[in-house]
Design brief:
single chain, Aldehyde Dehydrogenase, Chain A, domain 1, 2 domains, seven-stranded mixed beta sheet, six-stranded mixed beta sheet, 15 helices, 25 strands
Amino acid sequence: MKLQDSYPLYIANKAEQPNTDLAVTDKFTGEVATRVAMADAAMIDRGIAAAVEAAPAMAAMASYERQAVLMHCVTRFTERADELAYALCIEAGKPIRDSRGEVGRLIDTFRIAAEESVRMTGEVQPLDISARAKGYQGMWKRVPIGPCSFVSPFNFPLNLAAHKIAPALAVGCPFVMKPASRTPLGAIIIGEVLAETDLPAGAFSILPAHREGADLFTTDDRLKLLSFTGSPDVGWDLKARAGKKKVVLELGGNAAVIIDKDADLDDAAERTVFGAFYQSGQSCIGVQRIIVHEAVYDAFRTKMVAKTRALVAGNPIDEATFIGPMIDVKEAARLGEWIDEAVAAGATLLCGGGREAAMLQATLLEGVPRAVKLYTEEAFGPVAFFSKFSDFDAALEEVNDSKFGLQAGVFTRDLFNMLKAWDRLEVGGVVINDVPSYRVDNMPYGGVKDSGLGREGVKFAMEDMTEIRNLVIRRRPQDI
């Protein structure tokens, strides 16, 4: 299997090839794998104008028509699953087994959206709560918010694009999307499939663009919603410049997992190794902090180090590979420097720490001081560190000792500790007896504090992409 020599962009449902300016590299070899068209400001403006023009026709689509478009995507993504997985493996450096898993989630997300597209219900509400409202009745429904702007990240180029595109189609919102410049192929292939449907002209545009030339995605007042997934620094800056439009942000984290004294250590170690190192740790809910009860600390650390050392690193196209390259050499070098900083400040390196180009070894440490970047910031790579607790309340406080709050995991068999964690942890989601890295595509997903604003998950994204429109009905006194 091989990639095409070049890929187009999509403006108003149609493929255009104005240039081949964007080189997409094979993240393992560093060589150019293909080239993609790049949009300039004029093209982005055209895409937005087309979305505005398409908004009435999109809103007028019947539920079954929206569902048919989404089910067409399910069918075509299933038919092209091998192609999608291969493209993802090359453009993101994601191990092929993980790539196949992401294609499965892409399909799931569109299928969920197809189901939800015919369930957009409203509510009848009695208004006669006092004498002055006698004879009045209300009801409300949800209507599409209008043209949307989507900016998707490099780490899940298929599924995180799907979590914006599929809900928009389910509710009838036209959109423009800027995929990450390092991994645009997934979104482009989604566009290719959407172009096979009968969506109204202008319903979608998928426009790779350099960040510095893409201000219209954020600032244009014709757009009614901006949904951004990426780094906190960029996301909060975009919100500040977004004007009156609604903003949904899915940002970073430095997720923690608690290993309580009654946990099944073999199971917890198996899942925590996965949570820390799957797709080279490049997940905003990847395990970064491992907080272990003192009674089981030594035993759990030993199991974790052994399992981490056994992980297979190498070419992501190989079936045996678990650890592939990070997205580029710069990011791998940055995280290598953070590890060195932590060790210099007193942390102990338990395994890993080495780097060759974009390949960073799976790394575990302990004793990481709270002042260093590895503790306070999002690592976004294959590194995690241990700390020890004696009191469960103190462990919860340690999880909360972060500017982030996306998800947290707790391995415990204690019902009361489970409920205490759910009550007290300052995160968007608490996962019991699994890692914070776990997500199903129909659940509400999002964070608090610096981790974001709003929720994804198809049904919940659909709520953000719609507005409530109320209806009040008055009956004449003689009709009551």
